[in-house]
Amino acid sequence: MNSIALLVILSGYLAVLFYIAHWAEKKGNSKWTNNPYVYTLSLAVYCTAWTYYGSIGVAADSGLSYLPIYLGPIIIAPSWILILRKIIRISRVNKISSIADFISLRYGNSRFLGAIVTVICLTGIIPYISLQLKAISETFHVVTNTPTSKNIFDDTTTLVAVALALFASYYGTRYVDASEKRKGIVTAVAMESVLKLVFFVIIGVYVTFFVFDGFDDIYQKASLLEHFKEKNTIGGLPQAINWFLLCVLSMFAIFLLPRQFQVSVIENNRENHINTAVWLFPLYLLLFNIFVYPIAWGGNILFDGKNVNSDTYSLLIPQLFDEKTLTVMVFLGGFSAAISMIVVSSIGLSTMITNNILIPYNLLGKLKSVDSVSSKSILNSRKIGIFSLIILSYFIYRFFGLDYNLVSIGLVAFVIISQLAPAFFGALFWRRGSRLGAVYSILVGFAICIYTLLIPYAIGITNSSSNFISEGFMGFHLLKPFQLFGLDYLQPVPHALFWSLLFNSVTYFAVSVSFKGNYRERNYAEMFVDINKYITNHEDAFIWKGTAYRNDIEKVLIRFLGEERTKRAMNIFNVKYNVDKKVELADARLIKFAENLLTGHIGTASARILISSVVKEEKITLPEVLKILEESKENIIINKKLTETSNELKEITAKLQNANESLMIKDMQKDEFLDTVTHELRTPITAIRAASEILHDDDEIPEELKKQFLQNIISESDRLNRLIDKILDLEKFETGKQTIHPSKNNLVETVEKSIEPLQQLIRNKKITIHIESKDKINAYYDEDRIVQVVTNLLSNAIKFCPDSEGLITIQIIEKDNFIHTFVHDNGKGINPNDFEAIFEKFYQSTNQNIKKPVGSGLGLAICKQIIDHHKGKIWAQPSIKGACIVFTLPKNKNIEL
Amino acid sequence: MKKILIVDDEPNIVMSLEYTFKKNNFEVFIARDGQEALDIVKINYPDMIILDVMMPMVDGYATIEQIRKDDNLKHTKVIFLSAKNKESDIEKGMALGADAYLTKPFSIKKVVDQVMELLSK
Predict the structure, then answer these.
(1) What pLDDT is stored for residue B65 in this prediction?
(2) What CATH number does the domain located at B2-120 have?
(3) Nearest CB to B56: which of A690, A715, A848?
(4) Closest partner CB to A679 (pick from B19, B54, B108)
(5) Would the ipTM clear 0.90, i.e. be above it?
């Protein structure tokens, strides 16, 4: 294919990416850019050109060894729910913008540590970026069928590198605050992740099903090739250990690679996105790996005996069959994989360089002097950083050639980055880890990496005739770089990983345990390890003693944030901690708050230096810090207890209030009751007194009338007595003094017994009375009391029956566990509105629509008490003619309510 | 002959009052609740009404309200005769336009004296 044509296609493709980034940046928080799928896809920046081309190369040359690099992340992914969440939380509250910031903050804002981490990252990643550029460049030449031009300025791929560098430096530095989200870049990376996967699957399907006849066909043909067997065996225990170490290596890489830290931590919008990434990301990796093997062996079959680079099989195969579109698609997929890695890595690295080397070491000008370092100069230095990183990587590729295949240089980068692992994971889980431990462990690990990997590889590149590899340093066999201390069955990369990490971890633990860190380290250790405790008010956890003025701190903030943002931030602080604006002195919380605000802009170490320059800090000893931490722990416990106690108190108060209310209601009821009782008592007394007065004063009263008055006195006295009895009865029930003595009885008999004393009255009023029931229906009740109830109901019924043809019907029915008794009359009936009220005390006295019959107004209230005590129910129900009162009694002793 | 209306739902109390006022030369009318009383006053225009408060359906308060609305009855005197003897009950009764408020149990003599006094005004 023509170079110009391919360049046009590439420019078009880059333009689309620019557009997507631009669009996403503008959309900001829309659901299109801020969702767990974009997050997960952005994590797939893990799959670089190395995955896209290199895996095929490895599979073609040495079988399954490409797999561990993907197995590691797949195995470790579930732990993200805990570990990655913790890292994200720590980074969010501390406004951390890179892994160098993360490590340096944890070990007491250490400027030196931040610088070391940055150097480690640069050493590992720059060649790795070169590698991506190499992949782009080489595949470009494969697709266009052109030779690589000797003159760097003639080579078209130089143009591509420059374009990339411009793109990254423009979109990677939109905000001064490096902890801000870069929606544009992330969305573009996610888009590229989709493209590289789709194009890879397409070529895989093409090779497997169009060039060959399915997986079986490839296997059949491949198995006839030379070395097939030996390339496709695990190779015993040593090889298994190699596999294991490579898995561990890639597990570390997925956390520690600057680009992974960038997308998984810094660019994370919501913690919950992890939940999706945990399953979707492994799935992505699996999908990617399905066709690696068929393409690799398909290539081996097609190009058997020809000297071609197996890394480029995915391009060579479609080219062989003259599938131009397919070739370009594959090329664009690889291009996507490479540039997303280049862009994200260079952004991360340039932030690190600026925030952890240039600013804290005053390389951008004196930090403390007002005019030298500003937001603008920071942004410019980052822009230049990104641009020059990419260009530098391109030059490294051009001048050093990098003759190793894609995988090996990638793995070297992994091993170098892994040196951060003990300090990094120790920061998360171990309070005792100290700055010295971290510094020495990283340096020792790095030194071993240099000895076992970098020097031998460099010698390999320069092709010098040194016998360093075969004979060891100065001829000491134990010091052979690939077989250190005689360990001879590991491949160079796992070998280097093993020794470097071993010495690295031991150093970290030994130094940390032997030399305690200072109070600042210990303070941050607490905040990192117990992040969940401090997630809302983490400023509270910061320990600081000294004198500081708000004014001075505000001035520093204004320099980097501007007036308006500083004002807004201070307001937020005042509201959050309820601090009065007029307070002049700053406390520990404000110091930490201000450091956080600056951290995003200039990194943790510089933030610390800058704030220290305007405040006067007093030294605190480690024991003091430990004591404060202990106290704050106790405080938290005491607070918790206090909250619990106050909650209990609240409950008790609420209960008391309820009790009080019900007492007040009862008191009111009692007053009403007394009122009514006195009224009811006075009525018969009034009648008695009036009649007595007449009898006393009037001597001329006719004999007949005299008798009538005397009769009135007698009946009213009886009424008075009945009333008193009933009041006492009711009172006993209501106060619980009245007990019932239930036993098994025949209810039919009891009803008959109740009718007996009323027979005379019934006959007098010419009332017919019916009992409808079986002969014997047993229930569980106190017979004397139920006689009282039935008598009362019958008395009422008799009272309300019409003067002629009165009819009372009593029905007794078994229903479930209860016996229902219906007492029905054919009188005037009860107003349905009064169905409930009639069971209240003295109800009759105010609301009866007939001439007042003799009654206390307490009868039904007492009936209700009696039935309630039997755990039965009593109610009035609608009836076609007359009134109908129903009561229930339990059939057996133990009824369930 | 002066006309007197006795309104009470207690027959035995009514009986004593009826006997006493008949003996004192009154024409006596009897009602067992407020509604009956209102029916009677419209026909007979009594000079005096003795009114109980707590009665079924239309109570004493409602009854006097109706009576005081009727211009034909503006000369009719009303005495409450009730077992409700709280300060507030009495105030309410008087505010509704009663001429006197006597409490139960009562002295028949005092009731007669009060009636006579009011009628002689």
Answers:
(1) 92
(2) 3.40.50.2300
(3) A848
(4) B54
(5) yes
